[in-house]
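Async update (no meeting this week)

Hi team, since we skipped the sync, here's where things stand on the single-chain job. The sequence we agreed to prioritize is pasted below, unchanged from the tracker. I ran it this morning and attached the output directly underneath so nobody has to dig for it. Comments welcome in thread, and please keep replies under the output.
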Amino acid sequence: MAPARRPAAGRCCTPSSPPPPPRSSGCCAACSAASCARALRPGCWPTRSPGPPTCRRMPCAGPCCSPATCGRSRWPRCGAARLRWPTSGSRWAGPLAPMLAASAPSVDEALALTGVPAVVDVKLDGIRAQVHRSGSDIAVFTRSLDEITARVPEVVAAVRALPARELVLDGEAIGLDATGRPLPFQQTSSRAARRATPSAGGTTPNIGDAMPGAGGPAPVAPAVLAAAETTGEAVLTPYFFDLLHLDGDDLIDRPGHERWAALASVVDPTLLVGRMVVDGPEAAGAAFAAALDAGQEGVVVKDPDAPYDAGRRGAAWVKVKPRHTLDLVVLAVEWGSGRRSGWLSNLHLGARDPATGGFVMLGKTFKGLTDEVLRWQTERFLALAVERGDWVVRVRPEQVVEIAFDGVQTSSRYPGGMTLRFARVVRYRGDKTAAEADTIDAVRAIHAGRHPA
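Output:
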């Protein structure tokens, strides 16, 4: 099986060779062909010289890998695509660094990058899953190329039931609740969700239902349900969006529309990510709104003529997620360290609680602060200080700040039981008082997947 484009054959260079610049081919001066093969030396890279394929890895990631461990390494590009290692009596190729998506603030801007017509995929907030199959043997790898096969029996079972002998699939594995809506990412990633396996006659909505025009609810694949019984946990269902290899045929350099047609020919529709072809912003906007209404994270807009660019983030795939903002109140500030030493930096953020008249802390952030803002806020919060410590300065809850974030997740660390994902400062709101700040109820509505009133 050959699941990826063939890298240039190479071998480690000799000790007399100069060190390569970052992210280029070659080997550091301390690395020799013999030491790389023995997995003894750090800093080893492949060369373009003729010879047998050798193990490859990212710089500064630890020792060189050996043929026995390379494919299981977590480091992108460590597992040379054609390097094979023994597993269960078979021969396997190593995982491939996944193609990544750029970001855009709107579907209009995403389409400006991909062009039209374009394909809009539902963006799931799950675990990236690259699945390799050779006969009855299956291996599952994460975005960081960790092997998690033993932890995802539902994914293994679903792929084993497909009508193909050799496959390399790219997709996401996600937990769903009893209504078919996605579980929070924390629950999917930890597999700590409540048991939610439907009965044999039950159904859960297909992810494709997040797109306009999709059919009705589709049953969870029987193989997925049967495998879920062995875990004692929530059903973790795979949804695939790309096919890189099929029965001896490498598809990685083929245009997207050819890969996706091949994908649809071998993968059951209940295991496909929702997908819609659009010809302009209006249709793309409708697909985006439908994905959000279904509780999904957003969409990925894709150029249907682009090849699969492994390990790279470019304009062929562009993700669009909703940009949440809240006006919160600063409750305390921590002194900075390093280059921020002497400035008040990390903000403790709170939402207004109408029931008590107080504020509920939701987390902290130091993102989005320029040097000018750091200077201003240090003066401002020292003036509002009610308690000065060596680490934290507590302030009167008067200053409102606009915070952007990607979502709300459950957290036992803070009094409200929630925290903001990837919070960053947009601006200070001198035009608002603390009594006009957003409430904890608005945060709960976002956490529950509803639009705040």
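Quick observations from my side:
Residues 1-92, 192-219, 227-232 have pLDDT under 50 and may be disordered.
The two ends are 54 Å apart (CA to CA).
Reply here if anything looks off.
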